[in-house]
Amino acid sequence: MALPSKIAVGIDIGSTTVKAVVCNPETHEILWQDYKRHETRQPEMVLEFLVRIGKAFPDAEDVRCYLTGSGSAPITKAVGGKFVQEVNAVTLSVEKLHPDVGSVVELGGQDAKIIIFREQERDDGTREKTAITSMNDKCASGTGATIDKCMLKVGMEQEEVGNLVFDPTKLHHVAAKCGVFAETDIVNLIKSGIPSTEIMNSLADAIVHQNLSVLTRGNTLKHKVLLLGGPNCYLPFLVECWRMRIPETWDSRGYDYPKDVPIQELILTPENAQYYAAFGAVIYGLSDVTDNPNEARFYGIDSLKDYIENGRSARLGDSAAGPLVASQEELDSFLEEYTLPTFHAATFEEGQVVRGVIGLDGGSTSSKAVLVDHETGEVLYKAYTLSKGNPIKDTKDILREIRGYVRSFGAELECTGFGATGYAAQVLEESVRADVNIVETVAHMMSAVRYVPDADVVCDIGGQDIKVLFLRENKGGGRDVRDFRLSNQCSAGNGMLLQAMADQFGVPLQDYAQTAFDASLAPKFSYGCAVFLDADRVNFQKEGFSSTEMLAGLAQVLPKNVWQYVVQVPRLAEFGRVFVLQGGTQRNLAAVKAQVDYIRARVPNAKIVVHPHTGEAGAIGAAMETRRVVRRNGSSTFIGLEQAINLQYETVNDESTVCHFCPNHCSRTFIDTTTPDGRKSRYISGFSCEKGTVESKDALKELTRERAITRKQFPNVVEEEGELAFKHFYEPAPMPLAGAKKDDIEVRKLSFRRVARKAFQRGFKRSNVDLSKVKVGIPRVLNMYSTAPFFRTYFEALGMPKQNVVFSSPSTEEMWVEGGRYGSIDPCFPSKVIQAHIHELLFHFHPDKRKRKGPLDYIFFPCITHVPSFLSNTMDTASCPIVAGSPNVTKAAFTKETDFFERAGIEYLDPALTFTEPNLLKRVMFETWGERLGITEDESDHAIEQAHAALEAFDQRIQARGRDILKLVKRENRIAILMIGRPYHLDPGLHHGIPDEFQVRGYPVLSVRSLPRDPETLRETFGEDVDGLDICDVWPENYSANSAQKVWAAKFAARHPNLAILDLSSFKCGHDAPTYGIIDGIVKTAKVPYSALHDIDANKPGGSILIRVKTFIHKLSLVEEELADRALAKVELAKRVAKEREAIKARILARRTQAAEEPVSVPAK
Amino acid sequence: MDDIHHSEPELTPDEAAELEQELAGFAEEEARDLGLERKQYTENVQQEFWADQVAHTTILVSGLSLAHDHLVTAALAGIGYKVKTLEVPDVESLQYGKEFGNRGQCSPTYFTVGNLVKTLVHMRDVQGMSTQEIIEGHIFLTAGGCGPCRFGMYVTEYRKALRDSGFDGFRVLTFQMAGGIQQATGQELGLKIDPNFAWHVVRSLIAGDVLNLMAYRMRPYEVVEGSTNAAIEECKAVLYDSFSKRKHASVALYKCRRILKKVKIDRTRPKPLVSLIGEFWAMTTEGDGNYHMQAFLEEEGAEVDIQGITNWLLFMIWEAGYDTEQRQVLREDDVARKGLDGKNATKKLYSLKAGYWAVRGIFQAYANILGLHAYELPDMKHIAELASKHYSNDVRGGEGHMEVGKLIHFVEDKVNHMTVSVKPFGCMPSSGVSDGVQSKILSKWPEAIFVPIETTGDQQVNAHSRVQMMLFKAKQRAREEFDKALAETGLSEDEYRARVKSSRRFRNPFLRPAHKVAGIAANLVYAVG
Asked: Which residues of B touch A1087 (CB under 8 A)?
């Protein structure tokens, strides 16, 4: 066969591979195809492909070249080809090769795409096929990359993963919204000893759920579904998961699909799918209408060669930052100052008995341990092991290593104590009876001040977390934590990222620094989340930055992430001048150089010290604390080295360990350990509430009893308020009788836009309608937490029985997983979760067979534009626009394909209501309900008045609780936690049980509403002459009611010595963002104990919450000492004032006597 | 002791008062000494700008399109202010904004706040001005808001960033979106928002709109690349001169018409008409803040239909009118921001109506002179009614229901081929509400091509890629429409081109053929045929 003279080449340059096809431009027949990994050398690989294609088609004269894929943009110009957008390419390929396909799910390394085909009739009667396409936003990128990373973490080989079977019975929580979140969850599962296979299955299920709930934008995938992209091709268990979950959504949405066709034919992965984008690029290119006859004509390879040699670096000048070091001299002097001396482990004599304590830091990806001399505290030996999936195994290994080292000298180790910190500390406290289980932050502080006693700031950068501790002098003359900032999930993963990037570029980690120092320029990464950084990396690669430059750029972004993103304080100097850098990442001198430069630029006289044992700082802290505790107690609780090394353990995670004490049915893991001498212990993990900590009903009873005592002793108003808001607690006054006297105003519209009003009296009108059978469902979300008593009472006052006002349940993870698949957008979780509440009302409460909750007649979810506010002199009392508009968004989501309300025979009502205009509120409520319920306007107005009274009663009740608690803590000189947040943060599914963590540790918890606002308290708190409810002194732009109330609560706490603030904000909260700086100013100036979680989302970051709670509690213990000091100081003040009173009085009396004795002087004339 | 105590004389009331006063001072000092006193935070709010400071104060302005900033500067100069326009915010501004702003802000906040900080830092570090000179000699004037989105709380953010970057006390004044300037009254104000001020500023904004609309209409079809931009620059200079010297605008506009008329235009090639809507700042700026979206679309072969600031003014007037009408018929007036207690609703409605027609009138007059023919300003009432079934007219913030109403209008009335909605990442009204409702609109009108783009400032490649993805379909639509027009009129493409070439009327750069379908080339076919 003669070789063609015309060919069309399609090249797909992805994030890891290059794929190419050569087609006949007339017939579109594929003549040649191949793919290869490019190892980040995209242009070189494309050149290699083009050379091979040239050889394969020597007769080709007219060569058209179409490029697609994330890496194709710069290369397209160099070869003279035409760029084709990837999704267009895939869409066309699918349309051509699979005309019967209804939708496509493509998972790539970074991107995920969904295409849903839809046919519609046009005006002229012809049918047109259109495709709805969606791609993940930047927050959710990294699907394939996340799977790869997790595979490494769980330690499974590619082949093993390829043979994995999807098992839906053993799934654990993994947040797949974002790669970093998923990694955090995976690490926790590994640490809890969950088998790798279950973890991978859980990840697959989470990815599938995430795509079905978010990426489909609420649309239903149509059959047949084509699964494309790397992960779908090489992970059969992922495909199985799709095959299970997609039909579930079909069934729940009533989507009609052929039930007699095998699932393998409905949801399928085609062969050669890797070439679809390349092939589609050709189809697209050939069909795109253009007037240019030379379009996409291949220039030949010379210009690509030129681009590889010269073009790249020339283009980068503008967008790049400077190098890490400007000159060799600078580098030399830096290295001289900061190269750490090599650690030499101690050596021992034969027969010597080495007495030492062991400190262990069970970190996210590795475990580190140190052996410290019992007497001197000197570090004798350091051990390190990469996590192998079980904390007990890791500990055993590392202890064995330490013992082995000492024995290698013929010496014997006498372990005088053992302490742990980090993820593994909890399980070790139980199983080996560790002397110490301290929170990482405190361990790091202790370790830092051992080597740098005058440290002001400790910055610890580990694999996942960034911890910054601000220290101050304590009573004993030492140092303690004054304040701290921890990375939230959105800024996590920095050390890991440096390592992963080095791995990717094939640079050994120890060579990172030297490689990065060699770069003469660096790309400017945008700081923030690791996923964003990774997306930037892909971008920069495309732009042509070299790996050396990329490593330098990544080191430079690190200090920005620490100081601008995590710490968020531009004036670094206010924290002091002595900075200690520690954590494994500081071994990388490129990171240290970037940090030193950044800090020096802002604190010119800074002393910056790198911890001598930078990677083991946590372990050293644990060891130091252990040494202190053991020396003080005179003995150790540790089971002993031999017992620990020979500890037997068994991890069980099956039906027998599932917790059945509540409907959550948490899948728990039991780790049972047995020491050689037979002592058994059990550690339980994987539960979401404290009920999961027990195994029997009796134990649960005991727990409930204890819990009741705790609740009484340490009340939690957040919980009480969240419950009371939705309960019947107010008895509305009866409806006036028909004909009872009533004042009214007649309104008449006149000409010229005028209106006349006339007051008159008339009789009350009654409808006598029976509402005992009418049921209204209301989602328990957003501002319902502050207005629900109003709506409940409105309906009750009209005559609806209290059980007929049905609220959805508090949010739970199960509810979200089940009902979170309708949304088309990705806003904050509090507004996203609404769909799950509506789903519950529609699919659980409405068809409720026992008719306790359903069937519902209406779902009422008003757009509340303005909420009630207790503040004075504010600019407005607006709701957040998302909160106000969510009822409209929800309506769109539940009516766009199928009208779920109509199908259920329910009417959905979402009128706009304002609480600041009572007359308008009355009118809109009557317009909404009058005809529907058959009530009169008088009845509606009466119900509104009762509803306002109920809201007031609710407020008074909660305030009374707050008043009592404040009195109590004041009297007992204790601290109470004030949770500041938006009303919906009362929802346990949104605050993730954080307030409860404080309650169980003995702190009463208050809410914003519970702060008493009676004149006396306001005077006492804010002073005589000011309006205590005005916040203009700190924030004049106070349009948002809930933000303003939050700021006011912070002001209150700043004036009440017994309050500490827990500040909650949800991820993406646009209304809280402007108040961060203000609240920061308030708490800093008045030195209020303060802890914030600013990016809480759907998933519960258990580990991160615990570190914060524990660190905060450590700090509160210091605050309580201060309170005691303060009480003493007050007594002292009273004494001094009494004494001074006498002194002044004596002076005045003396003056009087002197005046009386002095002769009257006669003024001279 | 007791004896002594009993024999001690009592103090007179004056002496007792003296004692208490002295004791209070002592107690305060001792409390401080014992660490019992707590310092409290207050925000340093500087918004004072008095008449006697005008002569030595430079007003910095920024935040709109290039043409608008330029002409507002001229208008303010014309009424006696010293004014300086900031550069269009770029990625460097974004980085300044992120460093000194709160976390979790939207990109317009970072861009605009960072742009001011960038400018002040430049004045200090490069131009060598002292911080005091900068603070005393300059104020920043910008569009502010009235809640409820982040935009309404910009001033808080400006203050924080200025404080943290070392310019604590620098004054930021905002035109409040609905009514005058946020400023304490009393002394004679430096910025007097009186009818004269409003007339000059509004006029310059409308002139900026008309000029921008002309540019976006002409540039995609220019025969000589760059000729439109050159002409627009010339027009901007002419208008600047006119506004800053308070000359009669129509003279300048006629002059501009002559300049624009010289640009050679060929509208015979079908191009997709793409409307750019979205969040106000993101769709208005012409730089990194929206990934140069307008320029990108033009480069990709589209004609861009932009939204003018006039639309925004009309929207605000509509809002105030709608709110007043809703409340006028209540039995009693409410005391609240929008309540009518103490206000004359009838008078308010009449003045809003007057304002509405004045804005439309000025726009129409300028459009007629400059050659912007057959351009229809949106009917805000109609847009509101279209949207109201899906997006409540009472839910506010940002563009409110406008995006939804506009999309329905575009589809129903076949206004364009494709709609791009740009908004900042996490924009509350736009990506948090509008986009959610738009999914329903798209299922109802599946023929609509709609691309929502969230901008962060640093993801240009992805955003462009998404737009490109949808533009393919739009291009096909434009071509099909064009071919259909040819078929219906019985003209061949060559014939059609020849006829256009030979007719002065069809070559007229200001010609807007009668609307039959979305595409201009296709409409021209119908006009020719």
From this structure: 38
